[in-house]
Fold these 2 entries.
Entry 1:
Amino acid sequence: MKKRKILKIIVTYLLLTLVCLLFSIIYEHFSHGVYSDYMVYMFAIPLFGGVLPFGVIGVVKFLPLPKRLVTNLYNSGIATLTIGSCLSGALAIYGTTSDLILIYWFVGISFLILAMMIYLVNITRIIKNI
Amino acid sequence: MKLLNKPFIWAICYSLILICFTSYVILDVFVIPRAYVIVSDDTSSIADQSDSSANITTAANVTATSYQDDNISITITEYRKYDTSIYVADIYLSSIDYLKTAFANDTFGRNITQKTSTIVAENDAILAINGDFYGAQTKGYVIRNGVIYRSTVADSTNEDLVIYEDGSFEIITEGTISADELLSNGAKQVLSFGPGLIDDGEITVTSDAKVDKELTSNPRTAIGMIDDLHYVMIVSDGRTTESTGLSLYQLADFMQSLGVTNGYNLDGGGSSTMYFNGEIVNNPTTTGQTITERSVSDIIYIG
């Protein structure tokens, strides 16, 4: 049950990584040689923020499947950071900036921290019960 | 809380929030016009007063590639270098008061743009190039015709071009001096794009240096000073089969060959436009497919 669910999440994040990679390649192709690290490395967010941690949860047996609230918060954080990175890259390539971009980083990181804190509390409870 | 624990409810709600917020950010950056300062008659009169103090001009001698009166002499020359057409306006002035800047719609703000030729028509300019597109940024010094419009530092390493009341050019970094200090030092125009290309006759960009702005070949706009009240405005084509465009180093190298002592890169790409005597001189293009002027925030002009 745990393995199947984790595998589903990992496959989703892998697909998201590929979509991000494809999008940045196409975008950079038409940007007349102007590059932005935010656009180039956008794919790293779902890869290292999604595939890697859920892969670890799948491999390490004593780590429980995160509850829905945790996955909701965590997935939202990754989505927010990915879109924030994409938009930062697009604005940088166009040659402009916006203070509103900071909101993506603030909200995204907050969601990730919150999700990880709840997950850690869950793990602590399980260990105590054992 | 239970509702949010149901499959997809959270995902749907949060996706909608993300889509709405992202749409707002895109509209805020690219579409919604925000006027901060409308250039008043009082402000523009500073330039007008200086005009009246200058010599009264006799009738100008105008050809397709030149303009000459008692105070202004302009010659447009097309060069072919680096597989690119480069247009150079060689300018002699009797006073720096004839080198001016103007905002689109006479308004300092964000997403307030007009085509270079339209701003030219509203300011009776003889020659003009696009400026630094200050409106695409929220920070960086903006001083125009002796008035500070923005004094926030974009980046402590950001290089600005300062045009002083005596007609001299200087390239400064924003972290080293404030906008107020620049104004009290006699700055008349401050343009914030960059980088500086030539300083005291030496090229300040390298062919392989990692600068934030584009290293690849593109349409370019630049301005430089050769001698006292002797300037050049340069615009290159690019992104077309006829012209590949210039890298910043190629642009600097070309300017140095013209004898430029202080040269500065302005907004390029699709913004690059040179206007002279009722005509667009270069072939402005954003995509390389169609030749069309892009709307910009500001221009530098002679008039």
Entry 2:
Amino acid sequence: MVVLEVRHLRYYYRTRRGAVKAVDDVSFSIDSGKTLALVGESGCGKTSTATAILRLLPRNVDTYEGQVFLDGQDVTAFSNEEFRSKVRWRGISMVFQGAMNALSPTTRCGPQIAEPLRIHYDSSQEEATAAAGEALKNVGLPDYVSERYPHELSGGMKQRVVIAMALVMRPRMVILDEPTSALDVMTQANIINLLKRLQKEIGVAYLFITHDLGLASELATDVAIMYAGRIVEIGSASKVYAAPKHPYTEKLIHSVPRLRSEETPEFIPGAPPDLTNAPLGCRFHPRCPYAFELCGWSSSELAATLARQAPGLEIEDVSLAGVGKYDTEDPWKLVIWPGKGTRASSIASSLRELAADRRSSVPFLRAIEKIDERDSRVVVRLHPGQMPELMGEDDQQAACWLLQKEGSGSGTN
Amino acid sequence: MDLERTDLTPPGGAGAEPDGEYPIIQLDALRMWFQVGGSVFRKSLAVKAVDDVSLTIYRGETMSLVGESGSGKTTLGRTVLRLLEPTDGRLLYAGMDITHAWQPELMWLRRKAAIVPQDPYSSVNPSFPIYRVLEEPLAIHKMGTRAEREERIFQALENVKLTPAEFFAQKFPHQLSGGQRQRVAVARATILEPEFIVADEPVSMLDASVRISILRLLGQLQKKLGLSFLYVTHDLATARHFADRVGIMYAGRLAESGPIGSVLAEPLHPYTQALMEAIPDPDPENRLRERPTLPGEPPSLMSPPPGCRFHPRCPIAKEGLCDVVEPQLRELRPDHSVACHLAS
């Protein structure tokens, strides 16, 4: 049974440099008692997805749209007050990253755990204390902890307190944002065991946010891989780990250092894109070794690297179409102005040679569709790439054009 | 005294190339205790952060020190660099006793041995452009003319692949990503052309995919500049791929040490075994079982348990032996030692 369903969630922040597309058309669902691990590099929008689900919005929200269903009910239609009283903590609670360091230093742990009960249910002191004691027992902490201040506890115990706090209202769903990132391996293993046990006992569903695929595999029944604000692959954990379909997933899996294998971990060259100005087409294509024309090479990428690939060309200026000098706004058209004493035709012919020659080694040269001479300028027309949508079977989908090109499954391996 | 000339001569005589067998750091029964809570009426207590540790790091190798927080691994790293003065024992750098070395000798040591700190966000002065961050050590050690310094700074930036160097030199730390800042920290550590670097959890604050690139970079610099590393970490998995030897620390003492391959293939100490069990590899089957963990928590370093410090948590501890007699490191396999009565 589906507990949480997110449909076409978009969540942009407004900054001086334009909108940061932190979450861009994200959809997924989580069944009760199951765990979806949301995995990606920092800045890919994992935490923003979580705060968007809980509608914890900052002031500089630019766009916030899409739908969130909790137990089949569209909670995006709720007013803020309704959302606060019915969804937050009662339906969905969250263990924030570093939450154990955000416990109030001046309040004993018991009252802190009971605080949501006092606020939401207006519980009496006794009821709340009893519930807090129960919650502590659930997370394997002795009674006396409720009388302690946070500074008297170890990191692992504080993290347990935070988990107790997230579970005290018996929510259907808990969002775990890097719940063990500040803990030692042994404590981490203990917390993960606790989360496993709690899930088995009370059937709570988790959205587990982490950048560590090893850790994700401890809890995940399903995995969603996020890159630059979008989910690039989603599916059952067994399938995604065994046979990743998206090149990014594959690279991410190979970047994990393994304790029990000789295989040397590899890093992913390049850096994630700036989300105010994400690449056209597939957002991973500038870092993707398998990218081809459909993945969406833009003329700015061609312009930026043309000099490096063809230093012999006497180029006066390279301009993107539409930037002051020429024609319409078209990201797939590039205008080259020849230098003094050079003819457009010679540039065009060397470009043609270059494109034919290095198609295999320089991926975006493959994207060159047409090279024209016009008014003593060279106009390069690129293949208009396209952003891939998730495709594939229900239990494993990836947003990658390779799947369409070579038939599903065989693309990346 | 002129330390550089008299004491850096390898045993093979002047000009002999130092090879892998030539120790750069030697610890002999080193102790680093901190006094806490003393007053006129109360005797102070000692936190025995590093207690009786003997260890050798050879030239050109990466020694990894693995343990939980509070095991004393960071204190050991700082003591080796003489940022702390040892309480007892001996500390040798390139054969020279620096246990209680004083200021002029320490200035010399600071040029030979550097640190890459854990947190790239707080370890770089936010008001300095990168150029000045890197110039600082050169200025303190009064090295080079302006032009020479500039060349060195650009070279250091290129070494850590922050290119074009001129572009990154004028950036401020907040304009860089975590991985880039950590590269700056590496550039700063290597700018005085040291021989030995303590890397204290250099990648624990970074993303999984960036970690490997930083560790790979350290490995490349090691080859290029002939560096030796002490890699302090809690992560056995990265140690496996980037260290030559490993020392496992527990409660201020060395529990096990040896070549990384040998230790991981056959962990002799029950603590090492438990540590390995606690680390998941990416495998969807993990979900189906609980991960075996140790009961309890690491002991207080003020009053560690008698006998073996691990015995209260040890699954195989023997009464009358492990809780009475403190085990010493014994070499049970070639170069692979363990401090456990029951290992064989």
